[in-house]
Write a structure and sequence with these properties.
heterodimer; A: alpha/beta; 10 strands; 38% helix; B: 276 residues; mainly alpha; 86% helix
C-alpha cells in the first residue's frame, strides 16, 4: 500500500453551536485520486480547508507529508505549501493580472528564476491544460471552464506533490465538466501527483476517483473504491447516489387564474 | 395580571439584548485593534526580515502602490490645497480687518496650513481615495478566495498585499502633505498680493521667517501617523468582509468613516500632547 500523504485523525469542527465535521478520520495515499463527495452543507469544503492548512483544527489532527499542520513554524509551513497546489471553486484568479501573470506569480514570489525561464514554465503549464496562447487575456475574458483550467495551471506551476481541487466541475455544462475530469486524470498521469477532489457531482466522482470518501452531515460514512461505494448497503449513500430533484406539481391553469385574479 | 408580567419580561429581555449588543460591539472593537497591531508587527517583520526568510517585499509592487496613492492623487491634492489656501486667505483677511491687522495674515496661514490643514486634508483625501480602494480590493479578494489562494501558494498576504501599501503610504502621504502645504501657502500668497498688495516673494520670505522646523515636523509626524492608520483600518475592514458585493460596499464605507474619524481624533490628541 502507498504511504499516506495526508492523514486526518478525529477531526471535529464547530462553527458556533453548529457541528460541521464530526470525528472524521481518513488518509490520502500517494499517487491516488481521492474524491470527497457529499451533498451541500455536508462539510466537504471545510474538510478540504483543514487539509490545505487554511484552517487549524481545535479537535483532532491533520498531518500532511507527516507534519502536523497545527504545529508548523513559519518556514516549515512555507516549505510544505510549496509542495501543494490548489484550484479553487471559482478559480480565484487575480483579476488585476493577466492569465500569464497569474500563473507566473508563484514562480516570481517563491522561485529564484529569470523571466525567460518563468515564461517557458508558464507556457508549458498552459499547454498542459489546453490553454496555449491565452496568457495575455484577463481573467474576466475567460469562460467558466477556461478560468478553472487557468486556475489548475497556476496550481501546478510549481510542480506540487499534491493537488487539491474544490468543486472543479461546479457550474459547468456536462461536456466541459467531463473535459475537466479528463484533465484531472491527465495531470495525474503527466505529473505523478496525488489529487484530492471535492465535488457533489456524482458522475464526475465515479469517473475520476481511485477512492471515494462520502460525507453526510459532517460524518464520514465510507471511504472505498467507486464500485464499492456504488453498491454500498448504507442507506444514506444510496440516497445520495439516487437522489432526484424534488418535483412540485404545478397546475398552470390555476396559477394563471390566480395571477389574473379569477380564482 | 398577565400583561404587566409580559411587558416586564420584554423590557428585561430588551435590556439584556442591548447590553449583549454593546458587549459584542466592544469586543469586536478590541479584536480589530488587536488585528491592526498584529498587522503592523507582521509588516515590520517582513520589512526587516522578509528577504532573509525568502519572503521579500517586492519593489515593483511598492512603486505601483506609490503611483496609485501619491502620483495619481496629485491633481486633486493640488486643487483642494489651492482652495484651502484661498479660503484661509479670504477668511483671515476678513477677520483681521476688524483689528486692522490684515498684514498679519501670513502668520495665521503659515501655522494653520503647515500644522493642521495640509496633513488633515491630505489624510482625508488619501483615506477617501486609497483607503477605500484598498479595503474594496482586499474585501473582493477575500470573497473570491484570492487571499486563500495566496496563503496556499505560500505567499503571505500581509507581505504581498499590506506591506507594499504601507510603505507606499508612509512615503507618499508625507510627500503629498508637504506638497499641499507649499501649494496652499502659494495660493494664499497670490490672493494676499491681489488683495493687500504684499508681493508674493515678500509673503514667501515672511512665511519662512515665521515657520520653524518644529512646525514642519508637527505636520509631517501627523501625516506619518495618518498613513499608518489609513492602511491598517482599510486592511482590517477589507479582510473582515462578510457576504458578497453588498459586504464589500459596507466595508468600503466603514473604512472611510473609520479613517476620517481616526484621523480627526488622533489629530486632536496629537495637538493636545504637543501643545501642553
Amino acid at each position: 500500500m502507498s504511504r499516506a500523504i495526508v492523514e486526518v485523525e478525529g477531526l471535529t469542527v464547530h462553527y458556533g453551536s453548529r457541528r460541521i465535521l464530526d470525528d472524521v478520520t481518513l488518509e490520502v495515499r500517494e499517487g491516488e485520486i481521492l474524491v470527497i463527495m457529499g451533498g451541500s452543507g455536508s462539510g466537504k469544503s471545510t474538510l478540504l480547508r483543514h487539509m490545505m492548512g487554511l484552517e487549524i483544527p481545535t479537535t483532532g489532527r491533520v498531518r500532511v507529508f507527516g507534519k502536523d499542520l497545527s504545529r508548523l513554524g513559519r518556514d516549515e509551513a512555507l516549505d510544505l505549501r510549496r509542495r501543494m497546489g490548489v484550484a479553487f471553486q471559482g478559480g480565484a484568479l487575480f483579476s488585476s493580472m493577466t492569465v500569464g501573470e497569474n500563473i507566473m506569480l508563484p514562480l516570481e514570489e517563491l522561485a529564484d528564476l529569470d523571466e525567460q525561464t518563468m515564461r517557458i514554465m508558464m507556457r508549458l503549464k498552459l499547454e498542459l491544460v489546453d490553454l496555449a496562447g491565452f496568457e495575455d487575456l484577463m481573467p474576466s475574458e475567460l469562460s467558466g471552464g477556461m478560468a478553472k483550467r487557468a486556475a489548475m495551471a497556476r496550481a501546478i506551476v510549481m510542480d506540487p506533490k499534491i493537488l487539491f481541487c474544490d468543486e472543479p466541475s461546479a457550474g459547468l455544462d456536462p461536456a466541459i465538466s467531463s473535459a475537466l475530469d479528463a484533465l484531472i486524470l491527465k495531470l495525474r498521469e503527466a505529473l505523478q501527483m496525488t489529487i484530492v477532489v471535492v465535488t457533489h457531482e456524482l458522475e464526475s466522482a465515479f469517473d475520476i476517483a481511485d477512492r471515494i470518501a462520502v460525507l453526510d452531515d459532517g460524518a464520514l460514512l465510507a471511504v472505498d473504491a467507486p464500485d464499492a461505494i456504488r453498491h454500498s448497503p448504507l442507506e444514506p449513500i444510496q440516497n445520495l447516489i439516487h437522489r432526484r430533484p424534488e418535483v412540485v406539481p404545478v397546475d398552470p391553469h390555476a396559477y394563471l387564474r390566480r395571477l389574473t385574479g379569477e380564482a | 395580571m398577565a400583561e404587566p408580567v409580559a411587558s416586564g419580561r420584554t423590557a428585561g429581555a430588551g435590556a439584556r439584548d442591548f447590553l449583549e449588543r454593546v458587549g459584542r460591539r466592544a469586543a469586536g472593537g478590541v479584536e480589530e485593534f488587536g488585528v491592526a497591531g498584529w498587522l503592523l508587527g507582521q509588516s515590520l517583520f517582513f520589512l526587516v526580515l522578509g528577504r532573509a526568510r525568502r519572503q521579500p517585499v517586492r519593489l515593483p509592487r511598492v512603486i505601483a502602490e506609490m503611483m496609485q496613492i501619491g502620483i495619481a492623487a496629485l491633481p486633486i491634492t493640488t486643487l483642494l490645497s489651492v482652495t484651502i489656501g484661498l479660503m484661509l486667505a479670504l477668511q483671515g483677511i476678513h477677520t483681521l480687518e476688524t483689528f486692522g491687522a490684515e498684514s498679519q495674515i501670513v502668520i495665521g496661514v503659515a501655522f494653520a496650513v503647515t500644522r493642521e490643514f495640509a496633513p488633515l486634508i491630505t489624510g482625508i483625501l488619501v483615506a477617501g481615495r486609497s483607503g477605500s480602494a484598498l479595503a474594496a480590493r482586499i474585501a473582493t479578494m477575500t470573497i473570491n478566495q484570492e487571499v486563500d489562494a495566496l496563503r496556499v501558494m505560500g505567499v503571505d498576504p500581509v507581505r504581498f498585499l499590506v506591506v507594499p501599501s504601507l510603505v507606499a503610504a508612509l512615503v507618499m502621504v508625507p510627500a503629498l502633505t508637504l506638497w499641499s502645504a507649499i501649494v496652499s501657502q502659494l495660493a494664499a500668497g497670490a490672493w494676499v498680493q491681489l488683495d493687500l498688495g504684499i508681493g508674493l516673494p515678500v509673503y514667501v520670505h515672511q512665511t519662512f521667517e515665521v515657520l520653524g522646523t518644529e512646525d514642519l515636523l508637527h505636520g509631517m509626524t501627523k501625516s506619518v501617523i495618518f498613513a499608518v492608520l489609513i492602511v491598517l483600518i482599510a486592511v482590517v475592514n477589507g479582510a473582515s468582509v462578510r457576504g458578497g458585493a453588498e459586504g464589500v460596499g459596507r466595508r468600503t464605507t466603514r473604512t472611510v468613516v473609520h479613517c476620517i474619524s481616526a484621523i480627526l481624533i488622533t489629530d486632536m490628541i496629537f495637538v493636545w500632547i504637543t501643545t501642553r
